[in-house]
UniProtKB/TrEMBL annotation:
Tryptophan synthase beta chain-like PALP domain boundaries: 22-310
Stored InterPro entries: ACCD_DCysDesulf, TrpB-like_PALP, TrpB-like_PALP_sf
Modified residues (N6-(pyridoxal phosphate)lysine): 59
Keyword Secreted: no
Similarity comment: Belongs to the ACC deaminase/D-cysteine desulfhydrase family.
SUPFAM superfamilies in the cross-refs: Tryptophan synthase beta subunit-like PLP-dependent enzymes
Organism expressing this protein natively: Streptomyces violaceusniger
Protein name: D-cysteine desulfhydrase
GTP-binding is among the record's keywords: no
Region (Disordered): 1-24
Origin: domain of life: Bacteria
Gene Ontology MF terms: D-cysteine desulfhydrase activity
Active site: 86
GO biological process: alpha-amino acid metabolic process
Length: 339
């Protein structure tokens, strides 16, 4: 075991809320490794999907900082935004429940019948949902400001948690996670992670270095390189010295659309390791890793960690993915008869 790496967030955790047990597991994935063209011991999975709060996922690490700071500043209500099936919104609702704070979620789109997946859990955790309609990123942010202003006028003390939880403060959660990962696997060459709002990749880059982090763009932001780079610079307190490793080839028709590479990746992970991915983030991230192996960006014989950022509830809110999964069951079913 090498010397423990420096924790760059140590001494800065006065406002951090305790929302998870750490470290999350790091598990070998030999059958998945061989299936995608790596050697058996090359691929390991960092199981941030197993973070206990609210169904698990990477956003909990960010919320420890952002919600913790809001509570320390006297806020009574957390306000945040996202897509209808936002994992961040679900986990903000869960964090609010844990911390005894009200939560208002401003979601793009409109209510529909059969509101499943993350939306059902939002309600279970006691969050109030405000539907913003079909809006642009800027319009969604404006709706959040309107909601926060209305809450203040009604006597509440709201704190706005940024889209995806991704701010320099929130990214500290994954700067610390990078330290955790290096202690678990000092031989790490490449960590592969989905890129949504950018904070997860930024925190890992801050600790591991840009050369050891491969981000797979999922379509949540218009300019992932600028978004991640801005957060990296904020964490470092100076301009970034190296370029980022970003794959932009897995978005397909758009953020919420199921792509064939993502569906193939979801199926492969399920059938080799019993691990469930979602169609928007982790499915795309594994598809990006598979493409990186095929084009030589990730090579056999090198230690690769796939950061599983969670998102399972979102799968149950994605009709096309569920229909594809049901079709696979129908295609293999055998009718049993006695005698």
């Amino acid at each position: 075991m090498s010397e423990e790496p420096q924790d760059t967030t140590r001494g800065q955790d006065i406002t951090r809320a305790e929302l998870m047990s750490r470290p999350t597991p790091l598990e070998a994935a030999p059958r998945l490794a061989r299936a995608i063209g790596l050697e058996s011991d090359d691929l390991w999975v960092k199981r941030d999907d197993l973070i206990g709060l609210g169904g698990g996922g990477n956003k909990v690490r960010k919320l420890e900082w952002t919600a913790g700071a809001a509570r320390a500043e006297g806020a009574t209500t957390l306000v945040t935004s996202g897509a209808a099936q936002s994992n961040h919104a679900r986990l903000t609702a869960a964090a609010g429940a844990r911390l005894g704070m009200d939560v208002v979620l401003v979601l793009a789109g409109a209510p529909s019948e059969g509101m499943t997946g993350n939306i059902a859990l939002d309600g279970l955790f006691g969050a109030r949902v405000v539907w913003a309609g079909e809006v642009s990123e800027g319009e969604l942010a404006a709706a959040v400001d309107d909601v926060a202003r209305d809450l203040r006028e009604r006597g509440a003390r709201p704190a706005v948690i940024p889209f995806g939880g991704s701010s320099v403060l929130g990214a500290r959660g994954y700067a610390a996670a990078g330290t955790e990962l290096l202690v678990q696997d000092p031989e790490l060459v490449t960590a592969v992670v989905a890129v949504g709002s950018g904070g997860t990749m930024a925190g890992l880059v801050h600790t591991l270095g840009a050369e050891r982090v491969l981000g797979v763009h999922c379509g949540a932001v218009a300019d992932p390189e600028h978004t991640v780079g801005h957060l990296v610079e904020g964490l470092a307190g100076q301009p970034a010295a190296t370029s980022l490793r970003l794959r932009l080839d897995q978005v397909g028709p758009g953020y919420s659309a199921l792509t064939e590479p993502a569906m193939d990746a979801i199926t492969t992970a399920a059938r080799t390791e019993g691990i469930v991915l979602d169609p928007v983030y982790t499915g795309r991230a594994l598809a990006g890793l598979i493409a990186a192996v095929h084009d030589g960006q990730v090579r056999p014989g090198q230690r690769t960690v796939f950061v599983h950022t969670g998102g399972l509830p979102g799968l149950f809110g994605h009709g096309e993915t569920l229909e594809r999964a049901r079709s696979a069951v129908a295609g293999t079913a055998v009718r049993w008869s006695r005698g």
